[in-house]
Amino acid sequence: MPLPVLAEVYRGDASDVGIDRLFSNGVRRLGIDLRTVRLAGRLRTSAGVGSAVDAIVVATAVRLGGAVVATADPEDFNRLAAGNPNVVIWSLNDR
CA end-to-end span of the chain, whole Å? Predict the structure, then answer.
């Protein structure tokens, strides 16, 4: 999980414990580098949608060679991931 995502999900209260549990179950925290940030900017410009953090998530998945991204905002993520078949967007809205 790219570290900027944590800024969107941490609340500074007891709910943070559940997020921390993800990392004890093998979810990796990933720092970001300039190449990833530049790719995120390109993806965001091409898609014409998405927050910087959303674009960083997709760019990280691309740089890793592919990933499944679970989101409640599949439309923006699908546009950001367009042209990257190894990045699969999984809608949380369908669950």
Answer: 21
Residue 90, by phi and psi: left (phi above 0), alpha (psi -120 to 50) or beta? beta
**What is the rounded distance in angstroms from the CA atom of residue 83 to the CA atom of residue 15?**
36
Q: How confident is the model over 8-60, as pLDDT tens digits?
A: 888 999 989 988 888 777 778 888 999 999 999 999 999 999 899 999 999 99
Among candidates 50, 72, 93, 94, which has minimal Cα distance to 81? 50
Contacts of 20 (CB under 8 A, 6+ apart): none
Written as six digits, the tokens of 1 are 């999980």
Q: Provide the H-helix boundaries in the chain.
A: 3-9, 16-24, 34-47, 52-63, 74-81
